[in-house]
Structure prediction request, 126 residues.
Amino acid sequence: MSELLPAGRNASVRGGRVDVALEPVNAEDIVTGHPLQGTAELGTIGDAELGIWELRGGTVTDTEVDELFIVLSGGASIELLEVPGAPEEAGRIVDVTAGDVMRLVAGTRTRWTVDDHIRKVYVAGA
Prediction:
């Protein structure tokens, strides 16, 4: 897939309209439901990856990379299961919705609960 915002070009995309091909989530990551997820690569800035990620209908677990994201549409409840270097954060739930900005620390184990969908644009460290 080609980058939608390639380096060296002044370009824009409508994040809510970018086609994101959805596929079933790996069975070992599913807690409830029949969730689908997908990513559209936007490009890079320095060593950071840019993209749009969408998750629909269910609860899943994940191990995060170092990331900052902005929710474009929908929302989720994100439970921090394990946080490297900050065990006191375990069990905290963060509810995010359109317009919210969040940072996730690499190695954090999370549980994402999504009733309908969440679509976010992310910047992820290498």
Summary: The mean pLDDT is 95.
